[in-house]
Amino acid sequence: MTRSGQRNVRLRLCLLVGLLVAAPASAQYTAPGQWHRISELLLGCNDTYLVVDSYIDSVRGLNGAAQVSIIVPTSAIANELRYEFQAAGVNTAAVRYYTCPLDSIWMRDYSAIFTHNAAGQVYAVDAKYYPGRPNDDAFPYRFARFRGLGYTTLNLYYEGGNFMSDGRGRLFFSNDTYAENSSASRTTVNTRMMSGCGGTSVTTPTPLLYEGTGHIDMYAKLLSATRVLVANYPTGHRQKARVDAAAALFTGLGITVSRAMMATSVDEYGTYANAVYANNVALVPKYSTAQDAPAMSIYTSAGYRAVGVDCRLIIGYGGAIHCISYGVPTVRTATR
């Protein structure tokens, strides 16, 4: 994005020698849906200013539903977060800290796209990231090595905030991906995405107008393989045609669409689609507006325990809770 009681685990991901499993050329992958059960929720923090409020609400709301692994470049940042959690009265028994060089907070974008093969082994699919953020770009390799995951590369410039999978072979990303990889044809981009992420088809809605990331997670979120939340705007708003077109696209695929009005009084891009799942908990952006409750109810009706996460500060910088987190799937596939 161009955007005490605590057990302390400090391991340098960049130095730890672990098992790195190269992906065989013939391997068949599946990118699970984000509702798939996770082993840990990754957060990346090179600076606490933008994320501390969101982190506090997330850890408190999860209440141990998933391990939270916070990647920090220095122990000083870990200590800042410990202080903030303690001051807020947050139970941090499920929080672990790991040290690794980072350039930004946008974990969703620079982390790997996680897939698994037929045997259930998890693979990290490593795309190209911004040339000016070498530490972020190196994170997927370092993490895969640290955790002993399979590892493969994706020969595309790509950010994880612009990726959704239904867990059944359908991949979704905005057509902004083609502009980021203009040296390749659309057919080539699609083929590489399907090959690398286990897809059988791709769907590419148009991103929001003048929204800096161009990512699908700013306006759409799969609730399951058959249901999706799509953002909404008032009639006459300059974004209205874009989100209505996205909703019609999903409807045409036989996916049930629920609409959530954007929190435009806070930010034009005050999205509720930018949520993250962690073992049946939905961490949903909140902005202290009248739109919060209806959006939360959509996730609740889909079977999640919905938890509001304060994103009033970070949304002004081009993202919300989904953008700064990533769930690492377990080996067993869950359907929804």
In short:
The protein has 336 residues and is α/β, with parallel strands linked by helices. It has helices spanning 52-62, 75-87, 107-110, 134-147, 176-180, 186-197, 240-252, 292-301, and strands at residues 21-22, 29-30, 38-44, 67-72, 95-99, 113-117, 122-128, 150-157, 164-165, 170-172, 201-203, 220-224, 227-232, 256-261, 276-278, 281-286, 305-310, 325-329.
Secondary structure blueprint with pairings:
Layout: E1 21-22, E2 29-30, E3 38-44, H1 52-62, E4 67-72, H2 75-87, E5 95-99, H3 107-110, E6 113-117, E7 122-128, H4 134-147, E8 150-157, E9 164-165, E10 170-172, H5 176-180, H6 186-197, E11 201-203, E12 220-224, E13 227-232, H7 240-252, E14 256-261, E15 276-278, E16 281-286, H8 292-301, E17 305-310, E18 325-329
Parallel strand pairs: 1-8, 3-4, 4-5, 7-8, 10-11, 13-14, 16-17
Antiparallel strand pairs: 2-6, 3-18, 6-7, 9-10, 12-13, 15-16
Q: Shape from CA axes?
A: globular
Main beta-sheet annotation:
5 strands, mixed
Biggest sheet, spatial arrangement of strands: 1-8-7-6-2
Predict the CATH topology: L-arginine/glycine Amidinotransferase, Chain A
Strand percent estimate: 25-35%
How many domain units? 1
Instruction: Briefly note the structural class of the backbone.
Output: alpha/beta
Assembly classification: single chain
Tally of alpha and pi helices: 8
Write out the CATH superfamily name: L-arginine/glycine Amidinotransferase, Chain A
Order of secondary-structure elements: EEEHEHEHEEHEEEHHEEEHEEEHEE
Helix content class = 10-25%
Radius of gyration, in Å, reads 19 Å
Number of strands: 18
CATH A-level architecture: 5-stranded Propeller
CATH top level assignment: Alpha Beta
